[in-house]
Amino acid sequence: MGFGFDVFLQTGLLDFYGKVGELGLARRVFDEMPERDVVARNAMVAALGMNGFLSDARKLFDEMSERTSSSWNTMITCYCKLGDVEAARRIFDYNPMKNVVSWNAMIDGYCKSNQLMLARELFDRAGDLKNAVTWNTMISGYVQYREFGKAISTFQQMQAENVKPTEATMVSLLSACAHLGALDMGNWIHTYIRRQNFKIDVFLGNALVDMYCKCGNMDAALDVFRSLTKRNAYCWSSVIVGLAMHGYGEEAIATFDQMHKEGVKPDHVTFIGLLSACSHSGLVIEGRKYFSEMFEVYRVEPGIEHYSCMVDLLGRAGLLQEALELIKSMPVSANAAVWGSLLRACRIHKDAKLSEQVTDQLLKLDPYDGGNYVFLSNVYASLNRWDEVEICRNLMAEKGVHKTPGCSLIEVDNVVHEFMAGDAAHPQFAQISAFLDDVDKKLKVLGHVPDMESVLHDIDKEEKESAVRYHSERIAVAFGIMSTPRGKPIRVVKNLRACSDCHTVMKLMSKLFTRDIFVRDRNRFHHFRDGSCSCKDYW
DNA sequence: TTAGGGTTAG
């Protein structure tokens, strides 16, 4: 008995070392084992493969006189994790002991290598063999590639086939809701979680917190957060990012201090949240302090996103020179996002001279770099340099880069409706359009003059006006007001930043219709109420 | 005791 128990313990230790990346220690345990059964060999194959020694893993696997289904599945997983999905597929096809784990590992391998079609093909071929993990793999694959609608429809299919969802299913679905801003569905999932008595661990807890933050219900997010018995850096970061998005700068800082007190180490995402919180609330002194502490105290290396937050913070506060100095001191060269932050600040503070200088810097960026096309084209357009705009657009077409079209989402009666800028595809578009015309007339009476600054197309004034009116968030909000009961808050998610004219119109609409309007743009939440916005026009 | 699914930002 004693002998067998030793092997049992040693195998556990070997597995542990393999999983925490201590391959040397794993090897030593393996070499010193008096008896190596198939379980120990499987664990060693996994330890080698997962730590990058695929050929050693393969050699050990090939030498095994006896194999279990785990042996085969370990090889499939190792090949997938190291990016050789074709090799994994060859093992999968050849595997004489194929079981549901083999299918799941292979489907996940396709998902993780951005081959969703192949994943779905296998998923469909798996037929009745599928278990909850198979479904979860497919659903999380869709969420990872931002196919949120497909994730939800796959979940509905899972329910139709009477497969019981698990905590992992809920985590993926909540992530989809967070991205879509689908609060009603998120609430439904939370209720479902309670009814099923699912265990709310750090994964599920964080998914709930994040969903409530991103869907604009900060109170519910904090309720869940406070109820968690265990919180990791993800949970803290989600709350801090959430508070930042809602413009609660002081609260974000207090939360960060609490995180520090509880001994949870912040990561780079935590600092993105913290610094953007300072930025949204104009907390310059605090922002400077945390930026310098992030490496000195917390050993988190500032990345370009953190510099971007700081440029934004300093720029908004009118410290344009300091922002410029910071850009010059960056260890990596600035990208369009960083220069763009400074350019926005120049516009707010009406510094034409620096604006010109920054524009020059922007124009020096590589036009062949995909990320720069759109920004450059807008800069040229603002200077009325239409030839260059044309060149940028042609380059974009040539390279197959397309400008991200403005897109807004709104959930009405458990259905997420999607609107693109100037989009006439929605079945109720005629009514929406008439409604917006009517709103326009009312706003003109109130003295609203459309601001065309953010419509950078070489078109005449009248066309510009209609292009503004049909920005996606405006269509979505109009649709929301038309299709929901009086007094119900409107919640819209937009993929880009709100333009200044839409921002003004939203304020007026919140007063005109006595509605709370929440718009989550790329940067933060705007809560429009009674003619003003929670961002205090500072965004 | 060995094999498969889950979270923050971009």
TrEMBL record:
Domain of life assignment: Eukaryota
Keywords, alphabetical: Repeat
Gene Ontology BP term (one): RNA modification
Coiled coil (UniProt feature): none
SUPFAM superfamilies, sorted: TPR-like (SSF48452)
Domain called DYW: residue spans: 447-539
Protein name in UniProt: DYW domain-containing protein
Signal in keyword set: no
Stored InterPro entries: DYW_dom (IPR032867), E_motif (IPR046848), PPR_At4g14850-like_plant (IPR046960), PPR_rpt (IPR002885), TPR-like_helical_dom_sf (IPR011990)
NCBIfam families with a match to the protein in the record: PPR
Mapped PPR repeat ranges: 37-67, 68-102, 131-165, 201-231, 232-266
Pfam families per record: DYW_deaminase (PF14432), E_motif (PF20431), PPR (PF01535), PPR_1 (PF12854), PPR_2 (PF13041)
GO molecular function, one term: zinc ion binding
